[in-house]
């Protein structure tokens, strides 16, 4: 994608502000050892080695010192020195020395001065003067631990994070946005609404879905499987693990082993197994179960698959990035002539799912291609990649898919269309993928006899229809701030009795709704109705039915609901008709 000029200027300003922060730190704490301070999406950070831990109370002191430095309007001046001279200048800083020593012999070293009394090792670029930064909005928001160069074998440093924007208004707007985002953060809200939890001694990336979360996943899974069946997908059920032999054929052992959970040691054990990171090599065995003809194609296999991926601990985040997850995975074998239509159908299914869930407007499309300058990451020849990417490009253009290109984002065996979604904090992850693969069929000996009697390898489309269920659930929590549409809500209706006299009537209503398949609970406790209503509303339930003496005498109900005017004296059958229509149409 094209990088806008204003984005480059903002990045340059942020990097310059990192030097202002570094100068402020050195002024306040002269014994500090500076390391690196890059610009990031919402500002910058600087890693420092400092004897005491910086407390939140010190943030304003550091910001005040930064303002003093900015008010001087000092210039940023670049100087180039020899490697030997640079080593002398940074002799008391082991981090800078390490960086300099890694430079090739004879290479000159770039420094940037801010005024006459501060310089830092830096390639730049920077703004010309601190005067250009005086109107920027900036704010230190946290200090976290960070290992030098990301290795736990190195020293722990303090990473000072600072928001930084073009204007103070931009900063205020961003902080306000973050406050709203935190209210919707699935990692917080999902726990408060009793959807999931995590336990330290079970492990990172291994969430426990509570009954409410499990109900949502089950509803989604039934919806997905029924919709796939309508479109000709046949279900398989395959093992959760396999011997290393399978992964060596597919290429995962060579290209994905670090991301797998391996059971056993190749140097000691006769058989080494690994938990599956994806389903494709397993589903291929269903294809290979018997000889195939062109008349059998397209052949569509779908599976609700539990997968395992050894994600880095720093990448774990709630339900969005986990180590065990369930996915609506499918593999479609077809002839070259069928490829375009079948890809279109896969995309139509994914689009239908996103629109039904209300996520389509938040999606973007990335055409993930290989990086031909990093050939070791991939299998196949340049000609095979050119053919596969050319086929996908033509399909995407014919379908008018508004994609952007991601170089180096392809799977090791083929290009893919990644449907991306951002969480409330703007971090983007892949929700749904559709991949074209012309390589693994040959590796597994998958063939079909064509009309001319010649055996050929089918094209394979790898696809998900709704993606990872856990990740989808996370996005739904954030999208609706926990107030799910009726058809998805884990508890759709709660019946509240005004007094104990009304308990039997309330219970009879609950039973009628439950018999019709609604997810309904009752609250018959001897508590004030205001308390029971507040408690139910805190769980963001779609509808509350309240019954007292008047409703019981008239055989009616009173309703409170989201986006629904509070009503009294309502006939239960009329309300049931409304509920059934809302569920049937999957109203958002």
Describe the structure.
This protein has 588 residues and is α+β, with helices and mostly antiparallel strands. It is 36% helix and 26% strand. It is built from 18 helices and 28 strands. Strands 11-15-16-23-20-19-17-18 form an eight-stranded mixed sheet. Strands 1, 2, 3, 7 and 8 form a five-stranded antiparallel sheet that branches. A hairpin with a 2-residue loop joins strand 2 (39-40) and strand 3. Helix 1 packs across helix 2 and helix 6 (186-192) packs across helix 14. The protein is globular and about 90 Å long.
Keywords, separated by commas or semicolons:
single chain, 588 residues, alpha+beta, 8-stranded mixed sheet, 18 helices, 28 strands, 26% strand, disordered N terminus
Q: Uncertain runs with pLDDT below 50, 5 residues or more?
A: 1-5
Percent of residues in β-strands:
25-35%
Main β sheet profile: 8 strands, mixed
Quote the distance from N terminus to C terminus.
Answer: 33 Å
What oligomeric arrangement do these chains adopt? single chain
- Compute the gyration radius: what is it? 29 Å
- The pLDDT mean sits at 94
Helix content: 25-40%
List the helices and strands and how they pair.
Layout: H1 5-28, E1 33-34, E2 39-40, E3 43-49, H2 59-72, E4 76-81, H3 83-89, H4 94-101, E5 109-114, E6 119-121, E7 137-147, E8 156-165, H5 168-184, H6 186-192, E9 196-197, E10 208-209, H7 211-230, E11 234-235, E12 241-243, H8 244-250, H9 252-255, E13 262-263, E14 273-275, H10 280-287, E15 299-308, E16 324-334, H11 339-357, E17 363-369, H12 382-398, E18 403-407, E19 416-422, E20 428-437, H13 440-443, E21 448-449, E22 455-456, E23 459-468, H14 469-480, E24 493-497, H15 503-515, E25 520-523, H16 529-538, E26 543-547, H17 549-554, E27 557-561, E28 564-570, H18 572-584
Helix pairs in contact: 1-2, 6-14
